[in-house]
């Protein structure tokens, strides 16, 4: 068997490497020449624990190779971005480009799996595009003849930072365009998945993925809203949540400076876009979470008013604890916005990076160790609960104003 993975990013590359590590021939396709070259040297262009080792082993074994140009294979897995900008429509153009790229090399009996998180109906659209590009083949639901092609949606569900583990251990939802398509896709996932493969329709699989991330977003919004209410009512939200969570059926998540990452802050909008009138709570949750950075900034601004050009230390820049991923990070957003407000001197502490991104240094922000930053700071803003901050000597904080958005000290 030969598997082709289209899109060698945070999902596609680990998936390609893990399948190759099972001894299957894998060809990865990407539009970035740099990504292709890096992978062919056995190296990685993204950060994920242990990924470098798995990729290097797969390339050295001769099981994984990357290319700019698609070639025939038995199965094609599409793992390309599906961006969504608020107020706009879900952007399926990368899926469409992938369809255009693979269409010429498709052969009778091939399986095409869409892994990208997608709005409901995207797999049907992909099938229609492929059918239009290859009228000589028969795609499920789009040809009057017995289908000789298989299409399914199998949404990725791995947690950044634990991708290699979760790729193998998570259960998978397999939404075939027909029952035969689901069966065919299970054969592919059985190569590397130890979890259960659960079959359903493509539309249900699409909605399931969006539901999982919306569930988390709504629950985080609940926690974030509570933190704002508690601030108004002079109640320690961390103590409150710990107490409420002692109830056997209550499990409140953790408030923070906002919701970051590439999925949870985006996917709920797909549902809102599909059902704008009905998706009221899902939309509100998004708004609550998106409003949280502004709330934290307001607190800092109020504290800064008490000083003349205070030194403000921002602890954490990553989008969540114990990773180095700064993309779509509310902590980074807050730090940058504070610098632009010119409230004082802004120090950033981020133990998982060695150098600040250009836009932060250009805004006059300095990267310091936690000790150095605490020594200088008048105001300390806790943004991310990195493990390096946990043992912090709290006596340092007695003389400072503390704004603890993620409950490090409380
Ligand atoms: N966060 C909080 N409070 C919490 C939990 C999280 O403020 O109690 C914040 C985090 O700090 C972060 C954001 O939410 O900024 C998202 O972090 P996360 O760890 O909840 O999720 P992601 O974005 O890293 O990965 C999610 C996962 N989805 C679910 O847990 C339902 C993962 O399984 C998905 O595969 C991934 O999205 C994806 O690619 O869709």
Automatic annotation (TrEMBL):
<dbReference type="InterPro" id="IPR028359">
    <property type="entry name" value="UDP_ManNAc/GlcNAc_DH"/>
</dbReference>
<dbReference type="InterPro" id="IPR008927">
    <property type="entry name" value="6-PGluconate_DH-like_C_sf"/>
</dbReference>
<dbReference type="InterPro" id="IPR036291">
    <property type="entry name" value="NAD(P)-bd_dom_sf"/>
</dbReference>
<dbReference type="InterPro" id="IPR001732">
    <property type="entry name" value="UDP-Glc/GDP-Man_DH_N"/>
</dbReference>
<comment type="similarity">
    <text>Belongs to the UDP-glucose/GDP-mannose dehydrogenase family.</text>
</comment>
<keyword id="KW-0520">NAD</keyword>
<dbReference type="InterPro" id="IPR017476">
    <property type="entry name" value="UDP-Glc/GDP-Man"/>
</dbReference>
<dbReference type="InterPro" id="IPR036220">
    <property type="entry name" value="UDP-Glc/GDP-Man_DH_C_sf"/>
</dbReference>
<dbReference type="GO" id="GO:0016628">
    <property type="term" value="F:oxidoreductase activity, acting on the CH-CH group of donors, NAD or NADP as acceptor"/>
</dbReference>
<dbReference type="GO" id="GO:0000271">
    <property type="term" value="P:polysaccharide biosynthetic process"/>
</dbReference>
<dbReference type="GO" id="GO:0016616">
    <property type="term" value="F:oxidoreductase activity, acting on the CH-OH group of donors, NAD or NADP as acceptor"/>
</dbReference>
<dbReference type="InterPro" id="IPR014026">
    <property type="entry name" value="UDP-Glc/GDP-Man_DH_dimer"/>
</dbReference>
<keyword id="KW-0560">Oxidoreductase</keyword>
<protein>
    <submittedName>
        <fullName>UDP-N-acetyl-D-mannosaminuronic acid dehydrogenase</fullName>
        <ecNumber>1.1.1.-</ecNumber>
    </submittedName>
</protein>
<dbReference type="InterPro" id="IPR014027">
    <property type="entry name" value="UDP-Glc/GDP-Man_DH_C"/>
</dbReference>
<dbReference type="Pfam" id="PF03721">
    <property type="entry name" value="UDPG_MGDP_dh_N"/>
</dbReference>
<dbReference type="Pfam" id="PF03720">
    <property type="entry name" value="UDPG_MGDP_dh_C"/>
</dbReference>
<dbReference type="GO" id="GO:0051287">
    <property type="term" value="F:NAD binding"/>
</dbReference>
<dbReference type="Pfam" id="PF00984">
    <property type="entry name" value="UDPG_MGDP_dh"/>
</dbReference>
<feature type="domain" description="UDP-glucose/GDP-mannose dehydrogenase C-terminal">
    <location>
        <begin position="313"/>
        <end position="407"/>
    </location>
</feature>
């Amino acid at each position: 068997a030969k598997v082709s993975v289209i899109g060698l990013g945070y999902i596609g590359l680990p998936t390609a490497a893990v399948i190759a590590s099972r001894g299957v021939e894998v060809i990865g396709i990407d539009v970035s020449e740099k990504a292709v070259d890096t992978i062919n040297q056995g190296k990685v262009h993204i950060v994920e624990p242990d990924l470098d080792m798995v990729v290097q082993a797969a390339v050295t074994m001769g099981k994984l190779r990357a290319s700019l140009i698609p070639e025939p294979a038995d199965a094609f897995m599409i793992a390309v971005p599906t961006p969504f900008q608020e107020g706009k429509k879900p952007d399926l153009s990368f899926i469409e480009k992938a369809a255009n790229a693979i269409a010429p090399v498709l052969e009778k009996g091939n399986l095409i799996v869409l892994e990208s998180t997608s709005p409901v109906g995207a797999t049907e659209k992909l099938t229609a595009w492929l059918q239009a590009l290859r009228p000589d083949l028969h795609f499920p639901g789009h040809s009057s003849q017995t289908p000789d092609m298989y299409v399914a949606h199998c949404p990725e569900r791995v947690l950044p930072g634990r991708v290699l583990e979760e790729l193998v251990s998570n259960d998978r939802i397999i939404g075939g365009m027909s029952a035969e398509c689901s069966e065919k896709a299970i054969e592919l996932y059985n190569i590397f998945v130890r979890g259960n493969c659960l079959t359903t329709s493509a539309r249900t699989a699409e909605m399931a993925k969006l539901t999982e991330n919306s569930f988390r977003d709504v629950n985080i919004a609940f926690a974030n809203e509570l933190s704002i209410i508690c601030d108004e009512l002079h109640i320690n939200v961390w103590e409150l949540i710990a107490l409420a969570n002692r109830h056997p059926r209550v499990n409140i998540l953790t408030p923070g400076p906002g919701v970051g990452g590439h999925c949870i802050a985006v996917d709920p909008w797909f549902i809102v876009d599909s059902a704008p009138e009905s998706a009221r709570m899902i939309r509100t949750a998004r708004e609550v979470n998106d409003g949280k950075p502004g709330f934290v900034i307001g607190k800092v601004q109020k504290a800064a008013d008490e000083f003349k050009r205070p030194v403000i230390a921002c602890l954490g820049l990553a989008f969540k604890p114990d990773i180095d991923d700064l993309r779509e990070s509310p902590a980074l957003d807050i730090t940058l916005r504070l610098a632009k407000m010119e409230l004082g001197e802004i120090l950033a502490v981020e133990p998982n990076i060695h150098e600040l991104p250009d836009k932060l240094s250009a805004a006059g922000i300095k990267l310091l160790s936690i000790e150095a930053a605490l020594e200088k700071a008048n105001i300390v803003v806790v943004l991310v609960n990195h493990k390096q901050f946990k043992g912090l000597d709290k006596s340092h904080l007695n003389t400072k104003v503390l704004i603890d958005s993620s409950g490090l000290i409380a």
